[in-house]
Structure formats: C-alpha cells, structure tokens
Amino acid sequence: MDADLIIIGSGMGGATLAAALAPSGKRILIVETGERMQDSPDAVDGYAIHGRGVFRPRETWLDGQGQPFSPGNFYYVGGNSKFYGAVLLRYRESDFSPIRHMGGTTPGWPISYAEIEPWYQAAEEMYQVRGQLGDDPSEPAHSGNYPFPPVPDEPEVADLRRRLKGIGLNPSYLPLGVDLDRWLERAKIGWDGYPNTVGGKMDAETVGIAEALRHPNVTLLTGTRATRLECGPDGRIVAVHVVGPKGARRLEAPLFALATGAVNSAALLLRSPDEAHPNGLANGSDQLGRNFMNHNCSAVLAIHPFRRNRTIYQKTLMMNDFYETGGPDGEPLGNIQMLGRVTGPILKAGSGLPLPVANAISSRALDLYAMSEDLPDPESRVSLKGDQIVLDWKRSNWAAHEALVARLKKELRRAGYPIVLSKPFDRRTPSHQCGTAKMGRDPAASVTDIRNRSHDHPNLFITDASVLPTSAAVNPALTIAALSLRAADHIRGKDWA
Fold first, then answer.
1. Is residue 497 in a domain?
2. Interior CA angle at 316 toward 313 and 318, to 5°?
3. Residue 157 lies in a domain
4. How far is residue 485's CA from residue 257's CA, in Å, rounded to a whole number?
5. CB atoms closer than 10 angstroms to residue 428
C-alpha cells in the first residue's frame, strides 16, 4: 500500500480533510495536479491576471453546443482558493429547506443547519475568520463568536455603509479569511481574484495543507494528475492511476477521498468505467455529473462623478436584505457584497474600454457583486466527449438575478450614486461551481450519503463542492470546509481498512 488514505486534490475540501486527519498518524498522501504557486510580478498585475490570463490552465473544455472554451479553474496547490475572495460565509438556515424561487423550487438538504453548525464553527476557527455577529438579520445561530474582529472598512466603504443604513438597509461585515497587514505588505492591492503568494489569505494551502504537512505522516505529491480510479470486485476502490514526473503510476490505499472540484471530480469518475460500472464509478444513481450549478453573478459599479474612490482592498461589506425575500411574490433574490477593487486595467480587460476611459470610471466607482442562486437541474451537467470535458450549464433562476440587480441599482441611486452600471459574468467564469455528486439519503437519487461517502463504493469519500445539493446564494468555501471536517470526524470513528 502506498498510503492509508489517498486524497486527490488539495483545494478547500481535500486540504481541510488532510489537516483534520493528520493527527491520526495514518499515512496520508495528497495528489495534486498543480505545483505550488510562486511569486512573480504577474501576481500583482490585474491586467496580466484578467486580461492576459497568465494563470489560467492551458486546456479547453466544450460547452453545451460543442464549442471549445478556456475554463477559469486553476491548478495549483490550494486549488481555486489561491484566487478566491477569502469570503467564508455560512449558508443561511433557510437554505437547508426547500425554497420557492422565481425560477423553481429547490429540493433542500438531507441534513439541517443544526446538524452542520458545529463544523461551521470549527471551520471558522481553523480558517481564522474575521467577522462580526449581530449586524446581519439573516445570520444563522452560531455556537461561538468569530475568532477575530472584522476587517475594517476603508473610508469610502464606511461612507457607503452609512448611506445604506440611512435608507433603511442592513449592511454587515463580510466574514473574511485575511491577514490584512500581511497581504498589504506585498502590494497595495485587493485580494479578490489575485493569487495568494505571500500567505495573506487563509486559503487551502496556507491553512489546510500547511497544517497537514506539520505531521510527518502526510505527503504532498505535486505535478501529478489522476487519470482514473480502479474498482475491485467487491465495489471498493483499490487504486488511483496517475501521471506525473515519474510517468504513469498506480497508487494503492484502503481509503480514498476525491476533492478536485465539481467539474473534475465528476469527470474523473466518468473516466473510470469498468464492466460492473459501465457509466462510470459512483454512478449507480445516474446522477453523477448532473445538477451542475454556477451562481448567477453580476458586477455592479456605483459611480459618483465628483467623488473619488481611493480604496485599495474594498471587499469588507455585504447586504442580505433581499436574500430571503424581495421577489414579486416574496421569493428570494440573493446576496450583495463588495467586489475586490476593479482597477482601470481590470475594467479594460473585462469591457474592452480604452484604458483612459476605464481609469476614469474606476477612479469614481465603488464595485459590488450581486449573486443569486442557480437551481439544480439534472440536464445541467458534466459529461465526456472522448477524454474531453463537456460542461453544459443550463443557467436557471435568471429572472431573480435580474430583479436583484435592478433592486440594487435602485437602492444605490437612493444612497447617492447617480450612475450605476452592471455587467453579468459570462458562462466561462467559474462562479462557485457545485452539485455534480450531490449528497442524499436515497442511493437511487444521489451520489454520496450525508457523510460524503459514495453510496456505491464504501471506501470513497467526495469532499468538494460536488456534493452540495443546492448552491444557495453565498460563497461555498466555508460549507465545503465544514462538510470536510464532518466527514473527517466520521472517518476517525471507523476502521480505515
């Protein structure tokens, strides 16, 4: 055996699981496609990141019409969390129940908020979340406080907070995993969308992988891509086949955890058919790859022609006044939060505007992010064409998102910003992909059980956003971490062999 546990993927789910199980003394091997991210001038260059795409993978997927596109996913130790906005939000309590939306009704979760709450608290402590209880009416019950006080507003964001309160809204502090001083030591830039090369963000590498590797029984294997899983005659996974610096290899263990993200985890299982599982592993329900969700998102710029925006990092405020209501019949609309600073070069990259025009707009704009729930649909799915990934996203609930953006524009004008512009994120943007291996109690209708264990393979866990039954309308990183800690507790109580 090469290890007692092989974890495939080092993003938020895999890293958190490794950190939680490392004290067991069991031999844990983490297999990661990418390498550790190195610092470079491009790491602080917004146009290099968003315009030239220097960190994007050199691969193409196919969309639902068979057209190739460049996915926005990243392959590094730490996964997509290396670029995340460090927002570590809990799902709201209502998100775990069926909810009627403008675009349909969500199925709810097979577990309640109360069942996951202790692991939310543990994940907040592990990822050193900065936040403040009591200023968001939608905040669910916490068994403890945030480990640290909130990241402070910059003056222009503080002014926006006062203006929003002045018109009767409830802006609150974003829960963030950021060491502000350490981040700003590298460069005076925001962290949202910028790679974490200095440890200023509490991401999967700087927290989860770092904690796991403090233990000599944990090994990280980088530059190594998993190509398929191998199943034995008893239904247990016996090996993962990989390609890396040493060529093709077969790695064996009595326990496996898959955590390569909602698209790649589904694709790896679909690439692993055998005689007993002709439609891929973990797919006895025919739900693998289905129910793909990607948040409906728009950038919204609040502009005052005579007020300068001098913020550097900006991303400290959110608003959930329209999270659970606001639609024409009281339906939910979604979450609003600040974007990281949209500088002139970033705006040029996203809009095609001449740089002087983009600079003029950017210097007078506060940048917000409107996010609405995408609903699960079995026909919204990941599949394969040969060895190539096909991502056929059936966007849903778009009317609710349009209503959220319209409401936000109205409120920003009331708050004193006469010009408000918006632009939706396109299909190439991975806005919190999830849902392709949903958890559930019924093996005929789900891929994993409520502890993230495959219904079909008793020694296979899936610990990334694949298992989320709904996308809600908040950033999923903390929920992924909480579910991984919950799965780790379950594994600790069982015989690993």
1. no
2. 135
3. yes
4. 13
5. 13
pLDDT one digit per residue (tens) for the chain, 497 residues: 999 999 999 999 999 999 999 999 999 999 999 999 999 999 999 989 988 989 988 899 999 999 999 888 899 999 999 999 999 999 999 999 999 999 999 999 999 999 999 999 999 999 999 999 999 999 999 999 999 999 999 999 999 999 999 999 999 999 999 999 999 999 999 999 999 999 999 999 999 999 999 999 999 999 999 999 999 999 999 999 999 998 999 999 999 999 999 999 999 999 999 999 999 999 999 999 999 999 999 999 999 999 999 999 999 999 999 999 999 999 999 999 999 999 999 999 888 899 999 999 999 999 999 999 999 999 999 999 999 999 999 999 999 999 999 999 999 999 999 999 999 987 667 789 999 999 999 999 999 999 999 999 999 999 999 999 999 999 999 999 999 999 999 999 876 54
Is there a contact between 132 and 151 (Cβ–Cβ < 8 Å)? no
CA distance 12 to 478: 8
Looking at residue 295, its amino acid is H
Residue with tokens 């970033």: 346
What are the CA-CA distances from residue 441 to residues 77, 293, 381, 466 (Å)?
A: 32, 20, 21, 16
Look-up of token digits 């920003």: 412
Give the pair of three-digit tokens for residue 436: 């392709």
Helices 12-21 and 477-492: crossing angle in degrees, nearest 10, is 30
- pTM, whole model, 2 decimals? 0.97
Q: Is 368 exposed, middle or buried (0-12, 13-18, 19+ CB in 10 A)?
A: buried
436 part of a folded domain: yes
Encoded amino acid at 16, one letter: T
Q: How far apart are CA 383 and CA 128, in angstroms?
A: 37
Burial of 305 (0-12, 13-18, 19+ CB in 10 A): exposed
In a domain, 355, yes or no: yes
Single-letter amino acid, residue 491: I
Residue-level length of the chain? 497
Given the DSSP bridges, would you call strands 317-319 and 335-338 parallel, antiparallel or unpaired? antiparallel
Total tally of structural domains belonging to the chain: 1
What the block records as the tokens of 342 is: 């949209």
- Cα separation, 14 vs 18, in Å, equals 6
Would strands 171-173 and 317-319 be described as parallel, antiparallel, or unpaired? antiparallel
**End-to-end CA gap in the chain:** 11
**391 by DSSP, 3-state: which?**
strand
Cα distance between residue 69 and residue 429, in whole Å: 11
Range of the domain at 13: 5-492
Question: Where does residue 12 rank: exposed (0-12), middle (13-18), buried (19+ CB within 10 A)?
Answer: buried
CATH of the domain at 229: 3.50.50.60
